[in-house]
Design brief:
Layout lengths: L13 H4 L1 H9 L25 E4 L6 E6 L4 E8 L8 E8 L6 E6 L7 E9 L11 E6 L8 E6 L18 H7 L4 E4 L13 E3 L5 E3 L13 H11 L3 H9 L2 E3 L26 H15 L16 E4 L4 E5 L24 H13 L4 E5 L9 E2 L3 E2 L14 H13 L5 E5 L5 E6 L12 E5 L19 E7 L14 E7 L6 E7 L4 E7 L7
Parallel strand pairs: 8-9, 9-12, 14-15, 15-18, 18-20
Antiparallel strand pairs: 1-2, 2-5, 3-4, 3-6, 6-7, 8-22, 10-11, 13-14, 16-17, 19-20, 19-21, 22-23, 23-24
Protein name: Alkaline phosphatase
InterPro entries: Metallo-depent_PP-like, PhoD-like_MPP, PhoD-like_sf, PhoD_N, Phospholipid_Metab_Enz, TAT_signal
Pfam families: PhoD (PF09423), PhoD_N (PF16655)
Amino acid sequence: MAPGEPTTGHTPGRRAVLRGTAAAGAALSLPLLGAATSPAQARRGRPSADWGVQAGDVTTSSGLVWVRSDRPARMVVETAATESFRNARRWRGPLLGPDTDFTGRTALHGLPPGEQIHYRVTLVDPDDPRRSSRPVEGTFRTAPARRHGVRFLWSGDLAGQGWGINPDRGGYPIFDRMRSLDPDFYLNSGDAIYADSPIQERVTLPDGSVWRNVTTEEKSKVAETLAEFRGNFRYNLLDQKLRRFNAQVPWIAQWDDHEVLNNWYPGEILDDDRYTVKDVSTLAARSLRAFSEYFPISTLPPKDEEGRVYRVVRHGPLLDLFVLDMRTYRNANSPGRQPDDTQGILGRRQLEWLKRELSRSRAVWKVIAADMPLGLVVTDGKTDFEAVAQGDPGAPLGRELQIAELLRHIKHRRITGTLWLTADVHYTCAQRYDPDRAAFKDFAPFWEFVSGPLNAGGFAALKLDGTFGPEQKFVKAPTRANTPPTEGGQYFGQVDIDGTSGELTVRLREESGRVLFTQVLQPGRVGQ
């Protein structure tokens, strides 16, 4: 914890609790060079879970636990209040097989609120219960039922632009730094993979030095088949630091474009010689299936056959997190000047859901987790735009109309405590939106914070669109495109909510953990 940071009331013994987990993570170390196949099994002829464990969408009384096997196996989860696993509760999970790439998740219910949950996953041979894997351990905290301090982190953009797992850097170092902050959960704001960015073994840097990558067959080309999308998700799990992070910190995952390909929208037909599959909707369906297999998300199959990425995750009385999907339901990228746009970037059904759930929320803070920024002008080619803003500072047009409708709803329903978090643009910044500065004025002031990438190319700062009156209070970005992680430019954000006062503090951090910018927000107010 950096000097001057507020405590959040976290259990002080969590590091000690994780001694066994860290040891397990070391034992699970996968080879840093070579193919993405599982390493030799600890006990020959038994299932193994060498890709680690992960928890997700944790609430006051529930959570999902994920694992991947190297062969058909029954997933069995045990939970307990201590790492000794005395008086453990046993959960019989699904059979893992090729239909899900040998992945599976088990839903845990009836957990005590605000408590450290220790879990371990064992894989059992379905034909011979005597043959089972070595247990793999993890831990997470359930959300509190009463007002209690909350800490979470957010970022996005992993292994982009050809910058993959570099053994000379020890893989993905940012995950060790984030893990040391002991968050309740991590919000991944999209681009958890780069399905359209092949990974080469060597990249020559501008100074003549060489960046080395771990490589795999699936990462040697753009992803088109289901197997290739699955291989993209497996690639990141080759990194020991990420697996160690996953065993301690539950995820709330959303997706953006690079889970499929850059700047995609439904119905798009590709003009890209790298692809034999030109129908982007087909590619997106394959990616979403792999995404649902590799992340524990409560609204994706098998629990929810509709397969929604958008959802609300409630984290006690202080926080509701509204996870958006600004990709699946959008209209085609365009110049964005149309005076009527009901589909927008969210689609009508998701927008109505968001308005309804925001109105119902009784949480002190309503964090809107967007996979794209609102006021930054993100282009797609020479004439089209990829996000909400399109560079015209006047009255809302195109996708801005849908955001204007949402902001108007928040103001007129007197919904307090909203702020927006995102990644996407590969730098970090903070902007305050104020109707006094805006062309559209029927909304209450709010903040948007941007942080990323985790391990990808850095990019120069974008222009702001004046429609909603943003004022940039902080920005740190490279001065040229696609700077390697060795030059810095890797960022994550931290949010702390004080359990007594409800005060919320946002910190923007770089990979080393150094705090670049801090903003304190007061509960129940607008215009901070």
